[in-house]
Amino acid sequence: MPKSFKNLTICKDCGLVLNKPELDYSHEFHCPRCNSLIYKFGQDYLTVLLFAFTSIILFIPAVSLPLMSLEILDLKQTTTLVETLLIFFKNGYTAISILITFIGIVVPLFMLILILIILIPLRIGKKAKYVSAPLKLYEKLLEWQMGEIYMISIVVAIIKLQKMATLDIGLGFYFFFAFLVMMSFTMALFNPYDIWNDDEL
Q: Using CA atoms, how far apart are residues 162 and 169, in angstroms rounded to an integer?
């Protein structure tokens, strides 16, 4: 590739060819035509991978350990996150159960797996074009990432249930909260624009 081309980048939204700017860690570069974000600095790949692995490890106890225990008139029931979703499903709230499962569990976990699929090949020396497909899929899923909203809905449900019964928070709740926090850090540190500007995708 000629040296003159190495200093060029392309807006992936409108296709405008631009000179790569010299930026520091406190600035972003936007397309002058469509105002889309062209570039911002991200964290190094190894740090992002460590955060992603930690998030996935936290996910296992988050879905397998008890989320909460509910006691009403000497009847006590303990449920995990998965069991809670199954209760919704069995009681006829099929659409709600599927939606919550998708935006609260499937999408966040799948996006973390995509980060691993994208960054591990880059860490071992592969070119950016080898991860273009999972990278574009990751960017499309960003608008469906609503794990924080799911966590807020759980907290609201807990507050309401405390008025009707004795409620004990289980370890699964804390692991799920830690998972969402770690996942948010992972996605904040991961910068697709580093890869987009690294090579022609």
A: 11
- Structural contact between residues 97 and 138, judged by C-beta atoms closer than 8 angstroms: no
| The two three-digit tokens of residue 197, written as one number | 């500007």
Do residues 86 and 184 share a domain? yes
Cα 182–chain centre separation:
9
Q: What share of the chain is helix, strand, coil (3-state, %, to 5)?
A: 60, 15, 25
Contacts for 122 with CB less than 8 Å, ≥ 6 apart? 45, 128, 131, 195
Identify whether the C-beta of residue 197 lies closer than 8 Å to the C-beta of residue 20. yes
β-strand partners of 77: 70
Same domain, 163 and 184: yes
Instruction: State the Cα–Cα distance between residues 154 and 65, nearest whole angstrom.
Output: 15
For residues 66 and 171, the answer to whether their CB atoms sit within 8 Å is: yes
Quote the CA–CA distance of 149 and 173 in Å, as a whole number.
15
Full residue range of the structural domain in which residue 32 is found: 1-41
For the entire predicted model, the pTM comes to 0.69
> Rounded distance, CA 177 to CA 71, Å?
23
Backbone φ and ψ for 198, nearest 5 degrees, come out as -75, -30
Under-50 pLDDT residues of the chain: 1-3, 200-201
